[in-house]
Amino acid sequence: MDQIKLLPPKAKTTQKKRTLLQINLLYLNIILHLLATETSLITIRKQMPIVNHKNVTMAVSKEKLKGLFKQYDKNGDGLLDKSELKEAFKRLGAILPGWRASRSLQHADANGDGVISEDELVELVKYALQFGYTVK
User: What range(s) does the EF-hand domain occupy (predicted)?
Assistant: First the structure.
C-alpha cells in the first residue's frame, strides 16, 4: 500500500492572503464583540484593505428596535396593527414588509387580537432581532 506524503506548508504568504486574513480577523472580532456586550449596535471605524472606510452601522439594539416600533404607532393607541408593522419593517429594510408584518403578528400576538400591545412588544422585538435589521 502506498503511503501519503504530507508536504510542509509554504513559508511565503502572499499579500492577498494576508489581506484576506486581516479582514477575516476583523469580522471575527466584531462577532466576539457582539456576543460579549449583548448589544448589536456598533460602529466600525477601522481602516482595512478592501473594506469601505466609511462608518458602517450594524444591527440594532433591543431598546432602539423597541423605540422604532413605538414610533410607528401612528394613531397613538399604544397598539401596532398590521399596516403600522408593515411601515416599521419597510423602514428596517425588509424585502417583503407586508409578509414580515403578518409573520410578526403570528409570532408575537399572544392573545390573537390582531395587534401588538405593549406586553407583546418584547416578543416582537425578539422576533425582529433574529433577522439582523439595521438602522442608519
Answer: 60-95, 106-131
pTM: 0.56
d(CA 71, CA 84): 9
Residue 71 is assigned to a structural domain of this protein: yes
Place of cell 399604544: 78
56 — phi, psi (to 5°)?
-115, 115
Of 60-64, 65-69, 86-90, 110-114, the range with the lowest mean pLDDT is 60-64
Show the cell assigned to 51: 473594506
Centre a 10 Å sphere on the Cβ of residue 88 and count the other Cβ atoms it contains: 26
Residues 67 and 93 in one domain: yes
My answer on whether 66 and 53 are in the same domain is no
Number of structural domains (the chain) is: 2
* Nearest-angstrom CA–CA distance, 59 and 88: 15
* Residue 75, domain extent: 62-129
